Amino acid sequence: MDRPAAAAAAAAAAGSEGGGGPGPGPAGGRRPPRGAGGPAVGSRQPSVETLDSPTGSHVEWCKQLIAATISSQISGSVTSENVSRDYKVFRRPDIRALRDGNKLAQMEEAPLFPGESIKATVKDVMYICPFVGAVTGTLTVTDFKLYFKSAERDPNFILDVPLGVISRVEKIGAQSHGDNSCGIEIVCKDMRNLRLAYKQEEQSKLGIFENLNKHAFPLSNGQTLFAFSYKEKFPVNGWKVYDPVSEYKRQGLPNESWKISKVNSNYELCDTYPAVIVVPTSVKDDDLSKVAAFRAKGRVPVLSWIHPESQATIIRCSQPLVGPNDKRCKEDEKYLQTIMDANAQSHKLIIFDARQNSVADTNKAKGGGYESESAYPNAELVFLEIHNIHVMRESLRKLKEIAYPSVDEARWLSNVDGTHWLEYIRTLLAGAVRIADKIESGKTSVVVHCSDGWDRTAQLTALAMLMLDSYYRTIKGFEALIEKEWISFGHRFALRVGHGNDNHADADRSPIFLQFIDCVWQMTRQFPSAFEFNELFLITILDHLYSCLFGTFLCNCEQQRFKEDVYTKTISLWSYVNSQLEEFSNPFFVNYENHVLYPVASLSHLELWVNYYVRWNPRMRPQMPIHQNLKELLAVKAELQKRVEDLQREVATRASSSSERGSSPSHPVTPVHTSV
């Protein structure tokens, strides 16, 4: 694909941006473009203004809701649960009602997606809003969402919550609300809680609590997730965003040292790895099997990314099973030596263990462990001291406590500090910066692992690759990065998020992917023009991490996804995103191709992502319609770019005419000397 001219023109006009822009010095570095087969680094689709506008009903519904939200924000009528429509869109209009010219607010029934069906409707339900008080209306439960619409307010108060976002549903007393003596508290995964009150006879007749539990947790009730019923049509197929062979070819692979292998095509080497992996050319399959037996869950060291010049590589794997007796594996030792030898620029291999040293020692006593310098003499072991999934889960719980429903203004900063959330974000970013610096400046290959290699490892490798490779900072490049480092390499999304499961106390749940997206957002704050995508893009990804509307984040590994027919029976999130790229584009984007970004991993440079974590509180929302402003800037940028291209063509035409006249013998021209 052609690289958009807008990036080049803007780069020439703007040069290096001040403060956070990538450039020489501590903020970033530059290297020549990557060669190799496949598109060049930073390549992407034509600019959004050249794409045909999608006509899918989901997209049109999105645009109408965004417009309605902006209007309500300006009039000051937005409430916390009238979800920020410029961030979240789950509903779809009744097309027949639209044809009749009816407004969305006039529709009596809950709007449904293709494939969605209503399971229960209850009138005279009271939503107890922590910001505007009790609101009476009609509650509808479908197989995808909980939908509440006020009966008397104008404009209507609407609560639209995907069932996938629900963590647990509990019965509570509601005696203080008159006839509505029954109550339900709904605890959500996206930083909010909801309370509903209704009459006892309505509960007995319609089973509101039972319906919610049944459809919010379908897997616990012998049903399938809604993503398998969703039948929307999109003009693009998001499942084609990532092809492993094409991505490795983009990186210049295979080469004399590395081969694209299908040794795991049947998932027999490692059942949580993708079918296609990159391993050293000289390694035999038998030796690879022995290495797999020595690594936790069989997750052997494989290549994630290779530097286009030095050939330094990012390798990911799981911990070695050395155990308390310091067991050794000669095949594993030789394997890591081969990885080091593949990089002629360095005679050293850096092993980044994401864990705390003390925790790694504990794992060693349980049969796990880490690489010793005696067994791996050319390797240097570095512990990054990142806490485990349980610590991160507790940190997010504390953050939710201070962010919803009320914010203590007097103690806000100290309360945020007490959650340690930003400290853990800082530790992740600092670790990724160290990895990127060893690759870029040290020209040294690195191995990254934690215990099993699917949580902290994915965070670190993906962040380091985002810093090193400008392609991943485009919209489709970032989608490919998620597909590659998170989805194909077996981050346990189903367990960490708890899709469709009612066991809210499951110790396997943890906000690992949320932390990664938070780190990316922190980078966009420090380098505001280095990323093609905007904040809405990141929030949309997180919303659909929970929604179970798309198949992208379902299951725990590639093998499971094929077994469940995810790729053929569900729709990719990227189908939705890539059908309306202008909604998710950053108007300030400049394609700093081949620049390395080094974000400042200091608490003084980090901030809480208020637009995500505290978005349900109307007092914490931006007063200006930011998303609409960005869209207008994109339109202005497109118009200016068109003018630039017209002027360039005009200059080229004049230069051509002048050249032709100058070459004519009947029109002698005196040479003009210019200096710069």
Automatic annotation (TrEMBL):
Ranges of residues in domain Myotubularin phosphatase: 238-613
Pfam families recorded: GRAM, Myotub-related
Keywords, alphabetical: Cytoplasm, Hydrolase, Lipid metabolism, Membrane
Residue spans of biased composition, Low complexity class: 1-15, 656-666
Active-site residues from the entry: C450 (phosphocysteine intermediate)
Lineage: Eukaryota, Metazoa, Chordata, Craniata, Vertebrata
PROSITE patterns per UniProt: PPASE_MYOTUBULARIN (PS51339), TYR_PHOSPHATASE_1 (PS00383), TYR_PHOSPHATASE_2 (PS50056)
Record: residues binding substrate: N363, K364, A365, K366, N388, I389, C450, S451, D452, G453, W454, D455, R456
Listed GO MF terms: phosphatidylinositol-3,5-bisphosphate 3-phosphatase activity
UniProt main location, coarse: cytoplasm
Compositionally biased intervals (Polar residues): 44-55
Tyrosine specific protein phosphatases domain segment(s): 419-481
Places the protein is found: Cytoplasm; Endomembrane system
Region span, Disordered: 1-55, 651-676
Identification of the protein by name: phosphatidylinositol-3,5-bisphosphate 3-phosphatase
Membrane topology qualifier: Peripheral membrane protein
GO biological process, one term: phosphatidylinositol dephosphorylation
Enzyme class: hydrolase
Enzyme nomenclature, EC number: 3.1.3.95
Source organism (scientific name): Canis lupus familiaris (Dog)
UniProt biased composition (Gly residues): 16-28
GO cellular component terms attached to this protein's record: cytoplasm; endomembrane system
SMART domains (UniProt xref): GRAM, PTPc_motif
Gene3D superfamilies: Pleckstrin-homology domain (PH domain)/Phosphotyrosine-binding domain (PTB)
Family according to the record: Belongs to the protein-tyrosine phosphatase family. Non-receptor class myotubularin subfamily.
